[in-house]
Amino acid sequence: MLHDVDMLHEIGQLAKLKRSGFDYLGGVRQSVAEHSFRTGCIAHLLSSRLNVPFDLNKILLMALYHDLPEARTGDLNTLNKRYVQADEQAYEREFAKDYRQGFSIIALLGEYKAGESVEAKIVKDADLIELMLVLKELQEKGCQNALLWHERLSSKLNFDFSKEMAEEILTVDSSRWWMQKQV
Q1: Alpha helical stretches, state H, the chain
Q2: Among candidates 3, 121, 148, 147, which has minimal Cα distance to 54?
């Protein structure tokens, strides 16, 4: 069994691993760790709108770890996944065996993948909204193809308040938050 410090080094790989799908849209340099952090923040904001019981700790952990397997498998974008398949079962077996917290993290990832619990649905929405934010920023920098994904991504959202946020992303300039402070 590996030590907690080994797991922290493995998690650190996510900061070095760039998200591959943006290569087709002008090569934005966003790491998987950057994506996971903002996904966690979005999940926290979205969860405040839930009117059903939920476990915030589970939401935040699920958001932080949702792309952890990519430390070993790499980031396979939508096109890659048509031709390459990561051996997720081997990853799950090895990770659960490698680390003291491995089994509980794999259980969280399984719940996320199943997408049935309210916590998993919130994190899935947060994951998609994070992508929509990056695409909006790309569009503002001149990449006209960036927003072609918006409708497809919006159709996958689970909650009405997530869909409202997705629509707001289209209308709000990404620099508004700081430009208003300059006036």
Answers
A1: 4-16, 32-47, 56-65, 70-73, 88-98, 102-114, 118-140, 150-154, 160-171, 176-179
A2: 121
Spell out the CATH class of 4-182: mainly alpha
**Stated length of the chain:** 183
As a dihedral over the C-alpha atoms of residue 16, residue 120, residue 124, residue 66, rounded to 10 degrees, the angle is: 10
What is the pTM (predicted TM-score) of this model? 0.94
Residues with Cβ within 8 Å of 103's Cβ and at least 6 positions away in sequence, in order, are 96
The Cα–Cα gap between 25 and 139 comes to: 10
Nearest residue to 134 via CA among 14, 38, 11: 38
State pLDDT tens for residues 110-128.
999 999 999 999 999 999 9
Tokens of 121: 């649905």
Closest CA to 18 of 7, 4, 33, 5: 33
Q: Tell me the Cα Rg of the chain.
A: 17
Domain ranges, ordered by start, for the chain: 4-182
